[in-house]
């Protein structure tokens, strides 16, 4: 008998693989702090990604490049403390794995030992093969990431859809097969044509998690600040906002200011 999501005590790589095999979609969101991670975990999210997107939404940087390994570990520690069910995956930040496989392994070990996370994620295919092999040999689960890879933004020069041209699409297919064969447990496909994402998802054994890659991937991921409408200027086609917290929080703050200045807050029942 298959295990349903409600019966899962802890989401693991085995659970994620089983979800693909039985056709159950995988839900992933980013998280960077204890309070938000606790809400998402109790809501039943399958995977929490401590993304290097913290560089953008938490620190205000233009790209993901400035965030450091120490900062990623800090965010991961905060998320792990909140989680009882979800799998926690942590991005290896820019500069922590690209130069050589030894540095990549040391970075992954630090994340696992110091945060208590369950897996790491890194961007790229054949160019990071040795790093992936070395991390996997140490027993650390790896999630891959192909398509639009934000850490390479200055190489591409744009956040436009990737792999529209056949040469790039073919490389993506080959890289996806490579990551599958190496032993990655899942693969993020970001901002690629939906038909290509469908083809890749059907051609490899490991689950695919899409963002701007259509509905035929094995799961979906969004940045939590985008999904909840905390960010207001980021409006890609693939984003569905489930709340408008930018406006709601602003309105609540304005009301609080008004109540303080009018001496309405605190009232007699709100003091000792």
Number of helices: 11
Basic shape = globular
Strand arrangement, major sheet: 1-2-3-4-5-6-7-8
The overall pLDDT average reads 95
At the fourth CATH level, what is the homologous superfamily of the largest domain?
A: Phosphoenolpyruvate-binding domains
Looking at the structure, the CATH topology of the largest domain is TIM Barrel
Q: Give a quick account of the main beta sheet: strands, pairing sense, barrel closure.
A: 8 strands, parallel, barrel
Number of strands: 8
Chain-wise SSE layout:
Elements (H helix, E strand, L loop, with lengths): L12 H9 L4 E5 L3 H10 L3 E4 L3 H4 L11 H12 L6 E5 L9 H15 L3 E3 L7 H9 L4 E6 L5 H4 L9 H17 L3 E5 L3 H10 L4 E4 L7 E4 L1 H4 L17 H17 L11
Parallel strand pairs: 1-2, 1-8, 2-3, 3-4, 4-5, 5-6, 6-7, 7-8
Structure description:
- The structure is a single chain.
- The chain is an alpha/beta fold.
- The protein has 2 domains: 5-241, TIM Barrel, CATH 3.20.20.60; 245-272.
- It contains 11 helices and 8 strands.
- An 8-stranded parallel β-barrel has the order 1-2-3-4-5-6-7-8, surrounded by 7 helices.
- Helix 2 (34-43) packs across helix 4, helix 4 packs parallel to helix 5 and helix 5 (101-115) crosses helix 6.
- The N and C termini lie far apart (56 Å).
Brief summary:
This protein has 11 helices and 8 strands.
Fill in the keyword field for this structure.
272 residues; alpha/beta; eight-stranded parallel β-barrel; 11 helices; 8 strands; globular
């Amino acid at each position: 008998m298959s295990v349903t999501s409600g019966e899962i005590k802890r989401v693991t790589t085995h659970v994620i693989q089983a979800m693909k095999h039985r056709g159950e979609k995988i839900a992933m969101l980013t998280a960077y702090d204890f309070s938000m991670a606790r809400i998402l975990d109790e809501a039943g999210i399958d995977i929490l990604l401590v993304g290097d997107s913290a560089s953008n939404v938490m620190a205000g940087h233009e790209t993901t490049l400035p965030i450091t390994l120490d900062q990623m570990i800090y965010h991961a520690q905060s998320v792990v403390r909140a989680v009882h069910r979800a799998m926690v995956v942590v991005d290896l930040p820019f500069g922590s794995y690209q130069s050589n496989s030894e540095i990549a392994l040391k970075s992954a070990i630090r994340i696992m030992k110091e945060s208590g996370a369950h897996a790491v994620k890194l961007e790229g295919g054949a160019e990071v093969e040795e790093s992936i092999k070395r991390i996997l040999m140490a027993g650390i689960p790896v999630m891959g990431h192909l398509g639009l890879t934000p850490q390479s933004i200055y190489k591409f020069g744009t956040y436009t859809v990737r792999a529209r041209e056949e040469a790039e699409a073919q490389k993506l297919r080959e890289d996806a097969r490579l990551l599958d064969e190496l032993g990655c447990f899942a693969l993020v496909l970001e901002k690629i044509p939906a038909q290509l994402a469908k083809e890749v998802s059907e051609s490899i054994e490991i689950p695919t998690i899409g963002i701007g890659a259509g509905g035929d991937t094995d799961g979906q991921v969004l940045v939590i600040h985008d999904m909840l409408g905390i960010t207001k200027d980021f409006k890609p086609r693939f984003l569905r906002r489930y709340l408008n917290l930018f406006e709601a929080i602003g309105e609540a703050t304005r009301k609080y200011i008004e109540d303080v200045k009018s001496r309405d807050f605190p009232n007699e029942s709100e003091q000792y």
